[in-house]
Amino acid sequence: MLGLRIISALVAGPLVLVAGYWGRWPLALLVALSAGLAWWEMRVILRCHEIELPPWSLGWTLLLLFAAPAGPVPLDQALAAIVIVSLAETVLRCGRNMYAWGWQVATGLYTGFLLRYLLLIRGLLGPGPLFLVLAVTWGADTAAYFIGLRFGRHRLAPTISPGKSVEGAAAGVVGAMLSALLVARLFTLSPPVALAAGAAAGVVGPLGDLAESALKRWAGVKDSSRLIPGHGGVLDRLDSLLFVAPTVYYILLWLG
User: Which residue has the higher pLDDT, 14 or 94?
Assistant: First the structure.
């Protein structure tokens, strides 16, 4: 399993870094593909509770992903269209069963709106801050995994994710901060601001992981899919990043 994780990371990692450095359409294409696959995995998860996302609800994810200032559609107009159209469609299709409507909107926000911050960071702040987001996420995940595996004794959230430990979570914060300092040095970012971003990422990243774990436990599945050997699905790789990207974006805006 560890070998597959490393091989998958060696294949996908350079692709993400090149797209992130290049920006524009390569990054937009990669993020859109990730958002679409994450939407598909959410659709499969929800089917476990007989909640069917209609195929066109993928449009809500993509609309929120490319809403302004990353794209031509203002965010408020996108949200208004999604709420009105999805609610009307759900009433006509499902009558009083409103679970489908709630999950249409929630899935669009989860898989589209949160990923949108990767495009915002690259487009408005540049490659350095984007690499900061990636580095603190990966640094936290790596440190938490290996330290938790070796020294983890106290369960962090045993009813949601029994494999996660307090020791691993603490190591994740340290790993994120060290990764932030490295990126700050490479891209001449402010070290105090980078440290603040790393510390925040070390805290919110595990929350994103636990949120997705709770979804999977609710659905009774181990992984969101098997698309990535050794890692599970796209959501299994994006869960922390979905929380880290907006957090770091606003820290950089407020403190940078």
Answer: 14
